[in-house]
Amino acid sequence: MTTAAILVIGNEILSAKVADENGPFLARELRALGVDLRRIETVPDEVPLIIDSVRRCLASARWVFTSGGIGPTHDDVTIAAIAQAFGRRVVLDEGTLTLLKARYGDHLNPARTRLAEVPEGARVEFHEGYLFPVISLENVVILPGVPSLLREGFTRIRERFRVAPIFTRAIYFTLGEAALAEHLDATVARFPSVGIGSYPRFDEADHRVKVTFDGRNESDVRSAASFLRDRLPPGAIVREE
């Protein structure tokens, strides 16, 4: 099993000036790849808080994906923070610098030159047809904050994280959680390898509770769903997926 954490960096997210698209996107992608997401954190553009969060994420997951805070402006401090978290210097990547010189020529000012900064020892991957590299340092993947650029960058490397799939099933019930509780407890006890979630609704949906079953063994997932279903009368179930 491979685990991951997502670190979303940016004052604009915490102030609600911009809605976070990157956390949900990465969560969906990682799930599809079979990666077990352990945490999502959001921090401001402040080096000490980024360092603290990077270290906490690394302590709980194999891979850490950061979003935001890389660029030419004063609040783009992610590169410096990750370098400090690993005790590295910030250096200029020669490959990126060459591209910047070719693009900007005499207009390559100090701000644009910052786009070539990486933590010392970082892996800088260029892919044909793309204008920016994907940067990683050990198990931390550093991605842009602009959603379209993050999607482009992650898509280029996504397959390297694929592991055994997570199988899932869901049952929708007309009963409330109180009526289901003892049956859920029995199912959890019977199938410890299956992650079972219960999600109530209090709106006009056609069900009151959705119960999900997740696991690496498809047979166990199906058996857990059948076990719970068989404990309840047919009228208690709206549908299954």
Detailed description of the structure:
The chain has 241 residues and is an alpha/beta fold. The protein has two domains: 159 residues, MoaB/Mog-like domain (Molybdenum Cofactor Biosythetic Enzyme, Chain A), CATH 3.40.980; 74 residues, Alpha-Beta Plaits (2-Layer Sandwich), CATH 3.30.70.2860. Helices cover 37% and strands 25% of the residues. It is built from nine helices and twelve strands. Strands 2-1-3-8-7-6 form a six-stranded mixed sheet, sandwiched between helices. A four-stranded antiparallel sheet has the order 10-11-9-12. A two-stranded antiparallel sheet has the order 4-5. The radius of gyration is 22 Å and the shape is elongated.
* Helix and strand run: EHHEHEHEHHEEEEHEHEEHE
Mean pLDDT: 95
Reading off the top of the CATH hierarchy, the class of the largest domain is best stated as Alpha Beta
The first-to-last residue Cα distance is: 24 Å
Radius of gyration: 22 Å
Number of domains: 2
Number of strands: 12
Query: Widest sheet: strand order?
Result: 2-1-3-8-7-6
- CATH fold annotation of the largest domain: Molybdenum Cofactor Biosythetic Enzyme, Chain A
The CATH homology group name of the largest domain:
MoaB/Mog-like domain
Contiguous helical run count: 9
Helix content: 25-40%
Can you name the CATH architecture of the largest domain?
Answer: 3-Layer(aba) Sandwich
The major beta sheet can be summarized as: 6 strands, mixed
- Helix/strand class: alpha/beta
Strand content: 25-35%
Low-confidence stretches: none
Shape descriptor reads elongated
